[in-house]
Specification:
Strand order of the largest sheet: 3-4-5-7-6
Distance between the termini: 44 Å
Number of helices: 1
Structural class: mainly beta
Number of strands: 13
Helix content: under 10%
Strand content: over 45%
Shape: elongated
Largest sheet: 5 strands, mixed, barrel
Oligomer: single chain
Radius of gyration: 22 Å
Order of helices and strands: EEHEEEEEEEEEEE
Protein backbone atom coordinates (compact mmCIF):
# COMPACT_ATOMS: atom_id res chain seq x y z
CA UNK A 1 0.00 0.00 0.00
CA UNK A 2 1.15 3.49 -0.83
CA UNK A 3 -1.04 6.35 0.25
CA UNK A 4 -1.93 8.66 3.08
CA UNK A 5 -2.83 8.17 6.71
CA UNK A 6 -6.05 9.86 7.75
CA UNK A 7 -8.21 9.93 10.83
CA UNK A 8 -11.97 9.87 11.40
CA UNK A 9 -12.46 8.63 14.96
CA UNK A 10 -9.68 6.11 14.20
CA UNK A 11 -6.76 5.86 11.80
CA UNK A 12 -7.57 5.24 8.13
CA UNK A 13 -5.39 4.37 5.17
CA UNK A 14 -6.43 6.46 2.17
CA UNK A 15 -5.45 6.13 -1.49
CA UNK A 16 -6.00 8.37 -4.48
CA UNK A 17 -5.20 6.07 -7.42
CA UNK A 18 -5.52 2.32 -7.93
CA UNK A 19 -1.80 1.63 -8.42
CA UNK A 20 -1.19 2.66 -4.79
CA UNK A 21 -2.54 -0.78 -3.80
CA UNK A 22 -0.65 -3.91 -4.85
CA UNK A 23 -2.79 -7.07 -4.57
CA UNK A 24 -0.69 -10.20 -4.08
CA UNK A 25 -3.60 -12.60 -4.43
CA UNK A 26 -2.37 -14.87 -1.66
CA UNK A 27 -0.20 -16.86 -4.06
CA UNK A 28 2.31 -19.07 -2.33
CA UNK A 29 5.09 -21.21 -3.70
CA UNK A 30 4.26 -24.93 -3.71
CA UNK A 31 5.83 -27.19 -1.11
CA UNK A 32 8.89 -28.94 -2.50
CA UNK A 33 11.30 -31.77 -1.77
CA UNK A 34 15.07 -31.46 -1.76
CA UNK A 35 16.72 -32.84 -4.85
CA UNK A 36 18.47 -35.42 -2.62
CA UNK A 37 15.03 -36.66 -1.54
CA UNK A 38 13.94 -36.95 -5.17
CA UNK A 39 17.17 -38.76 -6.11
CA UNK A 40 16.58 -41.29 -3.32
CA UNK A 41 12.93 -41.73 -4.34
CA UNK A 42 11.38 -44.77 -5.97
CA UNK A 43 10.77 -45.00 -9.72
CA UNK A 44 7.51 -43.32 -10.78
CA UNK A 45 7.07 -41.53 -7.43
CA UNK A 46 6.13 -37.87 -7.93
CA UNK A 47 8.40 -35.15 -6.57
CA UNK A 48 8.42 -31.37 -6.62
CA UNK A 49 11.87 -29.77 -6.36
CA UNK A 50 13.26 -26.25 -6.37
CA UNK A 51 16.55 -25.70 -8.18
CA UNK A 52 18.68 -23.31 -10.18
CA UNK A 53 19.06 -24.11 -13.90
CA UNK A 54 22.52 -25.50 -14.77
CA UNK A 55 21.88 -26.68 -18.35
CA UNK A 56 19.18 -26.51 -21.04
CA UNK A 57 18.79 -28.71 -24.12
CA UNK A 58 15.25 -28.78 -25.49
CA UNK A 59 13.05 -30.67 -23.02
CA UNK A 60 16.07 -31.50 -20.79
CA UNK A 61 16.60 -28.89 -18.07
CA UNK A 62 19.15 -29.66 -15.34
CA UNK A 63 18.60 -28.05 -11.94
CA UNK A 64 20.53 -28.16 -8.68
CA UNK A 65 20.01 -27.21 -5.07
CA UNK A 66 22.39 -27.52 -2.12
CA UNK A 67 21.72 -31.29 -1.96
CA UNK A 68 22.27 -32.39 -5.58
CA UNK A 69 21.19 -32.13 -9.21
CA UNK A 70 18.48 -33.68 -11.38
CA UNK A 71 17.11 -33.36 -14.92
CA UNK A 72 13.61 -32.00 -15.36
CA UNK A 73 12.50 -33.84 -18.51
CA UNK A 74 9.73 -31.46 -19.54
CA UNK A 75 6.53 -32.41 -21.34
CA UNK A 76 7.47 -29.76 -23.94
CA UNK A 77 10.52 -27.56 -24.55
CA UNK A 78 10.20 -24.02 -23.22
CA UNK A 79 11.88 -20.91 -24.59
CA UNK A 80 11.10 -19.21 -21.29
CA UNK A 81 13.96 -20.81 -19.29
CA UNK A 82 17.49 -19.42 -19.02
CA UNK A 83 20.70 -20.59 -17.40
CA UNK A 84 20.63 -19.41 -13.77
CA UNK A 85 16.82 -19.22 -13.47
CA UNK A 86 15.26 -20.68 -10.34
CA UNK A 87 12.48 -23.19 -11.06
CA UNK A 88 10.06 -25.30 -9.07
CA UNK A 89 9.57 -28.48 -11.11
CA UNK A 90 7.27 -31.45 -10.64
CA UNK A 91 7.58 -34.86 -12.30
CA UNK A 92 7.91 -38.61 -11.78
CA UNK A 93 11.24 -40.13 -10.75
CA UNK A 94 13.01 -41.93 -13.58
CA UNK A 95 16.48 -42.61 -14.97
CA UNK A 96 17.62 -42.47 -18.58
CA UNK A 97 20.98 -44.06 -19.46
CA UNK A 98 22.14 -43.22 -15.91
CA UNK A 99 20.73 -39.67 -15.87
CA UNK A 100 18.43 -39.02 -12.87
CA UNK A 101 15.20 -37.39 -14.04
CA UNK A 102 11.81 -36.14 -13.09
CA UNK A 103 9.97 -37.16 -16.26
CA UNK A 104 6.83 -35.59 -17.65
CA UNK A 105 7.91 -32.52 -15.71
CA UNK A 106 6.14 -29.21 -15.47
CA UNK A 107 7.64 -26.09 -13.92
CA UNK A 108 6.95 -22.68 -12.45
CA UNK A 109 9.49 -19.88 -12.29
CA UNK A 110 10.64 -18.97 -8.82
CA UNK A 111 13.53 -17.07 -7.27
CA UNK A 112 16.07 -17.27 -4.52
CA UNK A 113 18.84 -19.54 -5.80
CA UNK A 114 22.17 -18.51 -7.33
CA UNK A 115 24.13 -20.41 -9.98
CA UNK A 116 27.66 -21.08 -8.74
CA UNK A 117 30.10 -23.53 -10.30
CA UNK A 118 32.04 -25.97 -8.13
CA UNK A 119 35.65 -26.35 -9.23
CA UNK A 120 36.63 -30.00 -9.64
CA UNK A 121 38.73 -32.39 -11.73
CA UNK A 122 37.87 -35.20 -14.12
CA UNK A 123 39.10 -37.81 -11.63
CA UNK A 124 36.97 -36.38 -8.83
CA UNK A 125 33.66 -36.56 -10.76
CA UNK A 126 31.01 -38.78 -9.16
CA UNK A 127 27.30 -39.42 -9.59
CA UNK A 128 26.74 -36.76 -6.89
CA UNK A 129 27.90 -34.20 -9.49
CA UNK A 130 25.31 -35.20 -12.12
CA UNK A 131 23.25 -32.25 -13.36
CA UNK A 132 25.26 -29.81 -11.21
CA UNK A 133 27.26 -26.81 -12.41
CA UNK A 134 31.02 -27.41 -12.42
CA UNK A 135 34.29 -25.90 -13.59
CA UNK A 136 37.26 -28.00 -14.72
CA UNK A 137 40.41 -26.08 -15.61
CA UNK A 138 43.47 -26.82 -17.73
CA UNK A 139 41.92 -29.35 -20.12
CA UNK A 140 43.40 -30.35 -23.48
CA UNK A 141 41.37 -31.26 -26.55
CA UNK A 142 42.60 -34.73 -27.57
CA UNK A 143 40.01 -35.77 -30.16
CA UNK A 144 37.19 -34.27 -32.23
CA UNK A 145 34.62 -36.81 -33.44
CA UNK A 146 31.29 -35.39 -34.62
CA UNK A 147 29.40 -34.12 -31.58
CA UNK A 148 31.98 -35.63 -29.19
CA UNK A 149 35.04 -33.66 -28.08
CA UNK A 150 37.38 -35.68 -25.88
CA UNK A 151 39.19 -33.67 -23.22
CA UNK A 152 42.05 -34.76 -20.96
CA UNK A 153 43.72 -33.29 -17.89
CA UNK A 154 47.34 -33.38 -16.75
CA UNK A 155 46.82 -36.79 -15.08
CA UNK A 156 45.65 -38.32 -18.38
CA UNK A 157 42.02 -38.71 -17.25
CA UNK A 158 39.52 -38.08 -20.06
CA UNK A 159 35.91 -37.00 -20.42
CA UNK A 160 33.71 -36.18 -23.42
CA UNK A 161 32.26 -32.73 -24.02
CA UNK A 162 29.06 -33.60 -25.89
CA UNK A 163 27.48 -31.31 -28.47
CA UNK A 164 29.51 -28.29 -27.35
CA UNK A 165 27.92 -24.86 -27.64
CA UNK A 166 30.80 -22.78 -29.05
CA UNK A 167 29.21 -19.65 -30.54
CA UNK A 168 31.79 -18.22 -32.94
CA UNK A 169 34.63 -20.23 -31.38
CA UNK A 170 36.16 -23.38 -32.84
CA UNK A 171 38.12 -26.17 -31.19
CA UNK A 172 41.15 -28.04 -32.49
CA UNK A 173 43.18 -30.94 -31.14
CA UNK A 174 45.77 -29.70 -28.62
CA UNK A 175 43.70 -26.59 -27.68
CA UNK A 176 43.79 -25.79 -23.96
CA UNK A 177 40.44 -24.92 -22.37
CA UNK A 178 38.70 -24.30 -19.07
CA UNK A 179 35.19 -25.78 -18.96
CA UNK A 180 32.20 -24.43 -17.04
CA UNK A 181 28.87 -26.19 -17.46
CA UNK A 182 26.96 -29.20 -16.20
CA UNK A 183 27.83 -32.86 -15.83
CA UNK A 184 25.52 -35.21 -17.70
CA UNK A 185 25.63 -38.91 -18.43
CA UNK A 186 24.68 -41.19 -21.30
CA UNK A 187 26.09 -44.49 -19.99
CA UNK A 188 29.29 -42.54 -19.20
CA UNK A 189 29.92 -39.00 -17.99
CA UNK A 190 29.54 -36.11 -20.44
CA UNK A 191 30.25 -32.43 -20.01
CA UNK A 192 27.38 -30.26 -21.29
CA UNK A 193 27.21 -26.50 -21.78
CA UNK A 194 24.40 -24.09 -22.55
CA UNK A 195 26.34 -20.97 -23.54
CA UNK A 196 29.66 -20.45 -25.33
Amino acid sequence: FTGALGIYNSYQLRNTVANEINVHGGETEPEYDTIAEALAGEKDAEFTVKGVVTFIDGKNVYVQDATGGICLYLTAASGDIALGDTLVGTGKRADYKGLPELSGATFEKSEGLTLTAKETTIGALTDADLCTYITIKDLTVTELNGKNTTLSDASGATVVLYNAVLGDKTLAVEDKIDFTGALGIYNSYQLRNTVA
